[in-house]
Amino acid sequence: PQLPSRLFHKDNRRLVSQIVSHYESINRCEQELPEHFNFASDVLDKWSQLEKDGKRPATAAFWWINDKGDEVKWSFEELGFLSRKAANVLSNPCELQRGDRVIVILPRIPEWWLLNVACMRTGIVFIPGTSQLTAKDIFYRLQASKAKCIITNDTLAPAVDSVIPDCQFLKTKLIVSEGSKHGWLNFQELLKVAPADHNCVKTKSRDPMLIYFTSGSTGPPKMVEHSHSSYGIGFTVSGRYWLNLTPSDIFWNTSDTGWVKSVWSSVFSPWSSGSCVFIHSMPRFEPTTIVNTLSRYPITTFCTAPTAYCMLVQHGLTRYKFMSLRHCVTGGEPLNPEVMNQWKTQTGLDIYEAYGQTETVTICANVKGMKIKPGSMGKASPPYDVQVVDDQGDILPRGEEGNIAIRIKPTRPFCLFSQYLDNPEKTASTEHGNFYITGDRGIMDEEGYFWFVGRSDDIINSSGYRIGPFEVESALIQHPAVAESAVASSPDPIRGEVVKAFVVLNPGFLSHDPEKLALELQEHVKRLLLPTNIQKEFVQELPKTVAGKIQRKVLRNKEWGRA
Ligand code: ATP
Ligand code: MG
Predict the structure, then answer these.
(1) Residues 260 and 250: beta-carbon distance below 8 Å
(2) Does the ipTM surpass 0.95?
(3) Among 440, 451, 474, which residue has the most ligand 1 atoms within 8 Å of its CB, making it the best to mutate?
(4) What's the pTM value of the predicted model, to 2 decimals?
(5) What's the pLDDT tens digit per position in 263-301?
(6) Whose CA is nearest to atom 2 of ligand 1?
(7) What is the dihedral of CA 35, 41, 42, 48, to 10 degrees?
(8) Residues 307, 333: contact at Cβ < 8 Å?
(9) For 262, which of 105, 185, 230, 277 is 20 to 30 Å away at the CA?
């Protein structure tokens, strides 16, 4: 009985090759980038054809659920049909044209995926934003991007309306809502009556497709522009090897739609492999929702943030059976080896970590079949030539700490952002010698594995020692009292700055004597790693972004009395 399933797996792999082997060769620099590329017509519509021909397994292409029991399932054909209608809504009643920009601020609802694909089909530039944006944030984004249209829901429409009078570029407002709203076109109503015929525009590989605003921790948010081929072709290798996806896989990535990880792992990587994108529109991150969903649905592949894995292992997983789960991945933040070990003990599965930025596709990854070194981000992912360089852009010897960088000369990789829009100085400031400097510090070992040390700004310089927060946090979390921690620099009259740890305690330790606990943690860290003293503060929670990333900068600024 094993044979057919193995054959099936092989067939599935062959199917993926039919669609993406050409793009994979481009990723491996064996073939030139084509002049034209469009993810909707060149990838999605091809999967739709294979599905029609009965060659793709009968898994959905998109499977969405919420906590009220609603469900949406689309095949590639249905996704094609609906996204063509959506494309006609954008072109016609919304009067948008190729090259126009549209801001889309929607939670994890199916329309977000339709509008994303509709933008590809029409050549309209898609600018996602998180639902946590305020009126002021939205105004800034509308003005900076000169967007002609904004698409949102009932929750954020009043915020948009409050800033409209001052927006000279905005022409159209489109609402995704059951009811109608004055001054807004209604997406659902228009979708119903929109024609289903639409000719996908022939976009050039280098035409802009997507703009992301960074989270703006270092000044006003920057606009990161990507071309059609950048994410469209650049995730082929990740989809196949890091995520290990085939058309029979069901991939659940928990990211919010406002974070870049959502297009990486809930659009391009899974759909290039013909897999099913699974979405739970959970309003909050609840460990119970996650484990119940993994138990009830045939999810084969799972991605969530490192902080979420941390919460899950603390919740305890041995009571649950994840019948179909076979591959787990993470990224966006460093994953503490301790969390990885516990996940493995509790579920039997490894976590394959990858590293990337809004500006890039996957920079490093642990791919299936490779030896995992807990705490490492894995090896360079093609087509990137990733090196650790000094501030002049000169390559440092293996084992030495420096800037993690991507080679951009003689050829800038097609899957690196085109530019920070309207900010040539900022774009230029990331280029040193032959390299794009990521702003992260790390080490490459003898075997080519990368080890994250910290964001350049987060590195602590204490009496001449450079200390990365990640290693201290990884040591702290090995102590049973520690649920989570964040390490940041704090001013010190003698040493200039010192290491300070903000520690969230596990519930069982809340009643312990804090002074004794602090001493114990000091001994624990010293034993594992540092001869230096670290300051400790016990806190109830850590500041985090919408993507669940720890904002060490917020803690650092507080320590230094900065705004
Ligand atoms: P901003 O640029 O506005 O400050 P951001 O850098 O947090 O926002 P992203 O582009 O989503 O926005 O995040 C990329 C950054 O996340 C990387 O530069 C790195 O610091 C961190 N990161 C991503 N993956 C990993 C990983 N596996 N290990 C450690 N850090 C990671
Ligand atoms: Mg960044």
Answers:
(1) no
(2) yes
(3) 440
(4) 0.93
(5) 999 999 999 999 999 999 998 889 999 999 999 999 999
(6) 214
(7) -170
(8) yes
(9) 185
